[in-house]
Amino acid sequence: MSSASSTNTPPAGTSDQAPLSVAQLTGRLKGLVEESFPDVWVAGEVSNFSRPQSGHCYFTLKDDQAQIRAVMWRGSASRLDFKLTDGLELVCHGRLDVYAPRGSYQLVVDRAHPQGVGALELALRQLREKLAREGLFDPERKQPLPKFPRRIGFVTSPTGAAIRDFLEVLRRRWAGVDVLVIPVRVQGDGAADEIAAGIKAAARIEPALDVLVVGRGGGSLEDLWAFNEEPVVRAVAACPIPTVSAVGHEIDVSLSDLAADVRALTPSEAAERVVPAADEMAGQIARLGDRLHGTVRRMIQFAAQRVESLAARRVLAHPHASIEDRARRVDELDARGQRAMRNLLGERNHRVAALAGKLESLSPLGVLGRGYSVTQDARTGQVIRAATELKVGQELRTRLAEGDVVSEVKRIEK
């Protein structure tokens, strides 16, 4: 029929070519794009950054007019010297890739570095902020250096100028110090691991070190970078030995400087920090000796004046006088005591005599002396006061002023 048409017949006005499937079209685009852009540099601002547990980094690179999705696989991301964040201006190297399931393309980044700020400066800033938050640079963690160390360790290159400068200043300032050099590489690949291992080895040395110096001479940021790497900074902060960081020159401040107990601007200054100057100590000892001599002299003068003052006292000038005074005082007290005893005895004798007179006047014997007598039962001694107490034949004893009379009752008269 005229109204019927085959489903395979192209619509009017189209090409005789058969249509492509979405997968076919996407595949052709994928091949075209990936073959055309196998190696490309792209600059833009990072946005929508995310990093799931897989470790892969997903973000968008954008400018004022366009944007492109980007991915950096975990292996490439782990080699970055800085941390990816939103708002960071990047220059990325990679290749274009078409992601068929979504029909979108993306930049697969294998290398990147910040624009404006170098990667090393950015990595340094980010690591410094991270370690500062952990408290590795806190002043409360710092240990004081010993005044007179006997054993000093130095983690450095044994052929560098740092150890020569250090030893030269050390010999000039103070003798009798043992220096143990722990040889490591101070720059290049693997230097940070060697420095960290050297610091840890220094903590195990017996007899124990009194001070540990970690350092090298000056150089560029790249030359000094090993002393900014996290393993070295953590080893310095964890070292139980008081540690001096002597990395670079005055204008160079490494993270090891911040983590160490003491920062020295140069290895030469490190020697000045860890040992005193012999001539300064000699002068200080001389000044202390003068102060001690003056103090002792003043103490002796004060003691002499004190002795003279005590010697002038009567008790020391005439020691027997005090004894004689006390002897006289004892004699006076003895005389007073004897007089008091005599007076007391006399007074007591008068009182006794008066009491005796009173007793005598009240005594029955006194009554007998005036012609009276006392009659008693001869057997019992009971005093007879009335005739009714007597019986005929009872034996009585009559007491007179002189002598007694024994009688027998013959008759009782009432």
TrEMBL record:
Biased composition, class Polar residues, residue ranges: 1-18
Main localization of the protein described in the UniProt heading: cytoplasm
Span list, region Disordered: 1-20
GO cellular-component term (any): cytoplasm
Subcellular location as annotated: Cytoplasm
Quaternary structure and partners: Heterooligomer composed of large and small subunits.
Record's protein name: Exodeoxyribonuclease 7 large subunit
Species of provenance: Aeoliella straminimaris
Phylogenetic lineage: Bacteria, Pseudomonadati, Planctomycetota, Planctomycetia, Pirellulales
